[in-house]
């Protein structure tokens, strides 16, 4: 093999995110955005978008258990000590590059799934309860969870931009194409 051929192979993007992971990621982003923007203004659309969020989270949990490669939670969920050590390396300016999720990103992916699930469940309970006290409590919880989730989404986007700059790669594009440089 010539050096030129070796260099081409070394820079050719490799598969990282399968179609299911990408479709569920962008589907969840779209459904949450639609639910958030419609809020109390357009109840039917908000409710359908909320059910879509719940269904997508459920599918992602299943795919995280039975999918393959980097879709599996066992591939990217690490303990708190590993995630904190990674954040320490990031603060010191020497974060290791990962082909899939880095330890902090893996932890945060789980946090986002839990927040979106809790937001969807609280909305469902609010909509289908019979007690006015429970309804009022669930309404407040649902709004608070939706706002916390939005904050987490903004943090997620910011982290993707920051890591793209640090590692000189377009992470949002990789979630569209499914490929990253090796």
> Average pLDDT value?
92
Describe the global form: elongated
Q: Could you name the ranges where pLDDT drops below 50 across 5 or more consecutive residues?
A: 1-7
Q: Report the span from N to C terminus.
A: 19 Å
Helix-residue proportion = over 70%
Order of helices and strands: HEHHHHHHHE
Widest beta sheet: strand line-up: 1-2
Based on DSSP secondary structure assignment, what is the total number of beta strands? 2
Approximate strand percentage? under 5%
Radius of gyration, in angstroms, nearest whole number: 19 Å
Helix count, per DSSP?
A: 8
Which structural class fits the helix and strand makeup?
mainly alpha
How would you characterize the largest beta sheet? 2 strands, antiparallel
Provide structural commentary.
The protein has 182 residues and is mainly α. The protein has helices spanning 3-11, 19-38, 43-66, 73-76, 80-91, 103-128, 132-167, 171-177; strands spanning 14-15, 179-180. It has a two-stranded antiparallel ribbon. Helix 5 packs across helix 6 (103-128). The chain is elongated, with a radius of gyration of 19 Å. Mean pLDDT is 92; it is low at 1-7.
Secondary structure layout:
Blueprint: H1 3-11, E1 14-15, H2 19-38, H3 43-66, H4 73-76, H5 80-91, H6 103-128, H7 132-167, H8 171-177, E2 179-180
Helix pairs in contact: 2-3, 3-6, 5-6, 6-7
List keywords for this structure.
single chain; mainly alpha; 8 helices; 2% strand; disordered N terminus
Question: Short summary of the structure?
Answer:
The protein is mostly helical.
């Amino acid at each position: 093999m010539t050096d030129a051929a070796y260099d081409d192979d070394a820079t050719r993007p490799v598969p990282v995110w399968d179609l299911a992971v990408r479709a569920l990621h962008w589907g969840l982003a779209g459904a949450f955005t639609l639910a958030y923007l419609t809020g109390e203004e357009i109840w039917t659309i908000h409710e359908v978008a909320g059910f879509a969020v719940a269904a997508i989270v459920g599918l992602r949990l299943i795919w995280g258990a039975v999918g393959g490669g980097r879709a599996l939670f066992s591939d990217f969920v690490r303990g708190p000590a590993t995630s904190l050590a990674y954040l320490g390396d990031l603060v010191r300016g020497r974060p290791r590059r990962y082909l899939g999720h880095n330890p902090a990103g893996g932890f945060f992916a789980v946090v986002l799934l839990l927040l979106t699930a809790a937001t969807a469940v609280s909305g469902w309970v609010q909509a289908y309860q019979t007690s006015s006290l429970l309804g009022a409590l669930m309404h407040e919880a649902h709004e608070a969870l939706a706002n916390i989730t939005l904050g987490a989404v903004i943090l997620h986007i910011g982290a993707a931009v920051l890591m793209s700059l640090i590692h000189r790669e377009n992470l949002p594009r990789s979630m569209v194409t499914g490929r990253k440089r090796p």
